Amino acid sequence: MTVTESNLPHGRDSLTEDLRWRGLIQDSTGLDELRELLDGGRATFYVGFDPTAPSLHVGHLMQVTTARRLQLAGHRPLLLVGGATGQIGDPKESAERTLNPPEVVSGWVQRIRDQLAPFVSYTGENAAQPVNNLDWTGEMSVVEFLRDVGKHFPVNKMLAREVVKARLETGISFTEFSYQLLQAHDFFELHRRYGCQLQYGGSDQWGNITAGVDYIRRRGAGPVQAFVTPLVTKSDGTKFGKTEGGAVWLDPELTSPYAFYQFWVNADDRDVIRYLRYFSFRSREELEELEKATAERPQARLAQRALAEELTTLVHGEREMGQAVAASQALFGRGSLDELAPDTLRAALTEAGLVHLTELPDVAGLLKESGLVPSTKEARRVIAEGGAYVNNTRISEVDATVGPEDLLHGRYLVLRRGKRSFAGVELRR
């Protein structure tokens, strides 16, 4: 990825104004100071990710794509994966976190570092730098930590943090209570070691981030700036980044590229324009044109498809994006099933509902076993009325059967009832 003038916000806006138009600045330590820093030259900034799972998920995309956006505008990213803070975990409002073994966290640190690599460039004048807070925190003794760090934190301010107040009645350990000190010290160390002038994160991190700004001032350093992005929400009240199958991960082994693509294609009309502003690297002019076209023809789902294609390409690459698009079309009879790779086909059928059989009944039996119809009688009726398909071929005989030669990749069948209801069968011998 090369930083050029063409990467900068197009047309009328500076970087800061582009971030504001996209809704990416919810709070900041000072908008004028932030504008001077981001629009006045090259700044070094940091964003942190705690390895509390083996993969990032789409909830992290706001921070990942913002890092890419800032680097494309000429600024230098420090991508912190917290080998120290990941062993503790930022306090949750509900209950104490489960502590993971250090060796597990260490493995997750490397996996997440690798996962971040495609989003930024590690070469050039503003090359990204991976950092790990265990490098400086792990060297500190308890006495050093309490004397050099803890001395600068008024407990009354720490108690005022919302998540801490929410936990006071049910209880919060000193371990989680001290997380704020660790994150603040990270900012100080990155400022001291790399000249870091800016930290950003999600809005739930505002208390931790401003504590770091204040801590740096108390240590006689700075000035530094900070901003937070908004919490990404869904209009229907469900949690962003969650599906019936759980979290939508960036790791293709945990969430297939097809399922990732479908997550964005299925975005609610009320949310998709906001998501485009948050995550897309299209210019303001391009997005405004897309918004207008989507409003005129909402049934075409132009915004959803544009967002799905851009983000699937960014996270998984152009080939996987192409396979996801091809699968979406082929499953509904608008493309060739034969051209789908086995992994893509299996992922798509798993999303729809994949049943495993050791032998193949007739087509009516397949429709029933797959759950597309409640009974064999209903299956025969659907076939007789011309509404049943196997591998996109309409079945007209109520007693029709399939054989080994009909299996895709030697093991799969795609069943469809009508235009939009489909399921998969995998033959296991």
UniProtKB/TrEMBL annotation:
<feature type="domain" description="Tyrosine--tRNA ligase SYY-like C-terminal">
    <location>
        <begin position="363"/>
        <end position="423"/>
    </location>
</feature>
<feature type="binding site">
    <location>
        <position position="179"/>
    </location>
    <ligand>
        <name>L-tyrosine</name>
    </ligand>
</feature>
<comment type="similarity">
    <text>Belongs to the class-I aminoacyl-tRNA synthetase family. TyrS type 1 subfamily.</text>
</comment>
<dbReference type="InterPro" id="IPR014729">
    <property type="entry name" value="Rossmann-like_a/b/a_fold"/>
</dbReference>
<dbReference type="GO" id="GO:0006437">
    <property type="term" value="P:tyrosyl-tRNA aminoacylation"/>
</dbReference>
<feature type="short sequence motif" description="'KMSKS' region">
    <location>
        <begin position="239"/>
        <end position="243"/>
    </location>
</feature>
<feature type="binding site">
    <location>
        <position position="46"/>
    </location>
    <ligand>
        <name>L-tyrosine</name>
    </ligand>
</feature>
<dbReference type="GO" id="GO:0003723">
    <property type="term" value="F:RNA binding"/>
</dbReference>
<keyword id="KW-0436">Ligase</keyword>
<dbReference type="InterPro" id="IPR024107">
    <property type="entry name" value="Tyr-tRNA-ligase_bac_1"/>
</dbReference>
<comment type="subunit">
    <text>Homodimer.</text>
</comment>
<dbReference type="GO" id="GO:0004831">
    <property type="term" value="F:tyrosine-tRNA ligase activity"/>
</dbReference>
<dbReference type="InterPro" id="IPR024088">
    <property type="entry name" value="Tyr-tRNA-ligase_bac-type"/>
</dbReference>
<dbReference type="InterPro" id="IPR002307">
    <property type="entry name" value="Tyr-tRNA-ligase"/>
</dbReference>
<dbReference type="Pfam" id="PF00579">
    <property type="entry name" value="tRNA-synt_1b"/>
</dbReference>
<dbReference type="InterPro" id="IPR036986">
    <property type="entry name" value="S4_RNA-bd_sf"/>
</dbReference>
<keyword id="KW-0067">ATP-binding</keyword>
<feature type="binding site">
    <location>
        <position position="242"/>
    </location>
    <ligand>
        <name>ATP</name>
    </ligand>
</feature>
<dbReference type="InterPro" id="IPR001412">
    <property type="entry name" value="aa-tRNA-synth_I_CS"/>
</dbReference>
<keyword id="KW-0648">Protein biosynthesis</keyword>
<keyword id="KW-0030">Aminoacyl-tRNA synthetase</keyword>
<keyword id="KW-0963">Cytoplasm</keyword>
<comment type="function">
    <text>Catalyzes the attachment of tyrosine to tRNA(Tyr) in a two-step reaction: tyrosine is first activated by ATP to form Tyr-AMP and then transferred to the acceptor end of tRNA(Tyr).</text>
</comment>
<dbReference type="GO" id="GO:0005524">
    <property type="term" value="F:ATP binding"/>
</dbReference>
<dbReference type="Pfam" id="PF22421">
    <property type="entry name" value="SYY_C-terminal"/>
</dbReference>
<keyword id="KW-0694">RNA-binding</keyword>
<dbReference type="InterPro" id="IPR002305">
    <property type="entry name" value="aa-tRNA-synth_Ic"/>
</dbReference>
<keyword id="KW-0547">Nucleotide-binding</keyword>
<dbReference type="GO" id="GO:0005829">
    <property type="term" value="C:cytosol"/>
</dbReference>
<protein>
    <recommendedName>
        <fullName>Tyrosine--tRNA ligase</fullName>
        <ecNumber>6.1.1.1</ecNumber>
    </recommendedName>
</protein>
<feature type="short sequence motif" description="'HIGH' region">
    <location>
        <begin position="51"/>
        <end position="60"/>
    </location>
</feature>
<dbReference type="InterPro" id="IPR054608">
    <property type="entry name" value="SYY-like_C"/>
</dbReference>
<feature type="binding site">
    <location>
        <position position="183"/>
    </location>
    <ligand>
        <name>L-tyrosine</name>
    </ligand>
</feature>
